Amino acid sequence: MDDPVILNESPHGLRREMIAHEALRVLTRLDEAGYKAYLCGGGVRDLLMGRTPKDFDIATDARPEEVKRIFRNCRIIGRRFKLAHVFFRDVIIETATFRALLDAAPEAEEVPLPSRRRTDVPDPTFATRGGVIVRDNVYGTPEEDARRRDFTINGLFYSIADGSIIDYVDGLKDLEHRVLRVIGDPETRFREDPVRMVRALRIASQLDFEIERHAREAIIKCCGELKSSSRDRLHEEMLKILNCGRALRVFERSWQKGLFQTIYPGFSAWLQASEGHAHLPWVKKALRQFDVWKEAGLKPMPALQHALLFGPYIEGVAIALAAEGMPEFEATLQAVNTVLRDKTNLTQIPKAVVFDVERILGIQVQMRKSSGQSKYASRLRHRNGFDEALIYLKFAGGIDPARKELADLWMAPAHEPALHSRKPEHAHPREQAPASKPPQG
Questions:
Q1: Whole-number Å distance between alpha carbons of 344 and 264
Q2: Do 130 and 122 touch, CB atoms closer than 8 A?
Q3: pTM for the structure as a whole
Q4: Which residues of 383-412 are buried (b: 16+ CB within 10 A; e: fewer)?
Q5: DSSP secondary structure letter of residue 297
């Protein structure tokens, strides 16, 4: 293996004071305890690019149990790869032990894995299932850990000991040339963990980087491997995409490479048919709206995002059910479940999100049955989910003139959707408010 590229503190410009004080505290205490302590991953990448990192992750030669002995506010989590989470008041600093580079993964399809129901089965150090890594607790050196990471620009380390940047994978060069490159053979790495393909498109879109040619070809070739991924992990990754600030760009790239069609086959087939293709502008406008909200610092409820993204498809299914004689309100609720709980989807949308989407779209039916001025309308305004339903209606009114008239009726009273949720962790975004408030009445 080649010697790493090491940049001293003065050339690279990343200073200790740029690191969140919680992460700096963990790095410093690990260093004082005699362990190697490196800031790693996207945190180093973003700081070198002048961006504010979303997370500050740490890599160390301390084992999770040793980290826990140093920090009383620490919890060990994970089964595929054990991590030490150091808890502060509002921040969790993820601390991972350097992973080993395994040239040949052992055959582990026959190895039984422990579960909540089976406590008598030992937890294997390393195990794969169908080529996908399901256990990975083999520890190694900093260089091995760097080469185990997904992309070269995520394989950079910042050493708290001397302030240097350590680069084992030519990440600095790719950062300079704005290229997203997979560490190792792209096809092999994508088969190990297919979610890396989705991450590649998201990160490249966020940073406005070009994906290296071999990685692009491997994504197209391996997109079917996503079927072996965790549905929960894919849902989390899709939420990251919707909130990354470049959701529309990720959608366009993932559509070109067949990833979106693999994750949402039913929705994609509908978009490719004549009926759904006519609603493609709606889908793109919704994704663009998510990007606008991100730029404004607003975080919408996941239910509102799913309602807007899948809205035309859900409404089409509801119309078909109503045509068969089902009441309109019931048809809408059934359509939400048909679309969002479609077993061919590769994501697992939580039941709470599905329930909130039912409320948002169910209120649309109720809005159409009122002028917005009656006592019934007054009660409707106080229902949970009404603010999101009004945002949905206003969004739809920007595309459909008939619904714009309905939206104007409901916007006529001096009522605007709240920017903040009843629960502080969920902010409710809204489109630009009217220039002046309409009179009370």
A1: 7
A2: no
A3: 0.82
A4: eebbbbbbbbbbbbbeeeeebeebbebbbe
A5: T
User: How many angstroms separate the first and last alpha carbons of the chain?
Assistant: 76
Q: Would you list the DSSP string of 26-81? A: HHHHHHHTT--EEEETHHHHHHHTTPPPS--EEEESS-HHHHHHH-TTEEEE-SSS
Cβ neighbours around 114 below 10 Å, total: 14
Q: Please state, in angstroms and rounded to a whole number, the distance separating the CA atoms of residues 334 and 329.
A: 9
Of residues 399 and 434, the one with the higher pLDDT is 399
DSSP 3-state assignment of 140?
Answer: coil
Question: Would the pLDDT of 10 be above 80?
Answer: no
**Residue 130 binned pLDDT confidence (cut-offs 50, 70, 90):** low
Length, in residues, of the chain: 441
Q: Is 84 helix (H, G, I), strand (E, B) or coil?
A: strand
In whole angstroms, what is the distance from residue 64 CA to residue 30 CA? 12
Cα separation, 87 vs 425, whole angstroms: 18
Pairing of strands 156-159, 179-180: unpaired
Instruction: Scan for tokens 């929960």, then name that residue.
Output: 232
Encoding tokens for residue 114?
Answer: 């422990």
- Provide the annotated active-site residues: 55, 57, 150
CA 245 to chain centre: 11
CA-angle at 366, arms to 242 and 438, nearest 5°: 80
* The token pair that represents 149 in the structure block: 């990471």
- The token pair at 110 is 């026959």
| CB distance 283 to 309 below 8 Å | yes
Please spell the DSSP secondary structure of 233-296, one letter per residue: HHHHHHHHHHTSS-HHHHHHHHHHHTHHHHHSHHHHHHHHSHHHHTTHHHHHHHHHHHHHHHHT
**What number is the average pLDDT over the span 334-363?**
97
Question: Which domains are assigned to the chain?
Answer: 1-102+138-171 (3.30.460.10), 105-130 (no CATH), 178-263 (1.10.110.30), 264-411 (1.10.3090.10)
The tokens for 417 are 């959707």
> Token pair of 12, please?
């690279």
Secondary structure letter of residue 182 according to DSSP = B
CA geometry: angle at 291 spanning 286 and 292, to 5°?
95
**Residue 335 identity:** A
Beta bridge partners of 135: 127
d(CA 377, CA 381): 6
Cβ neighbours for 334, distance < 8 A, ≥ 6 positions apart: 317, 318, 321, 326
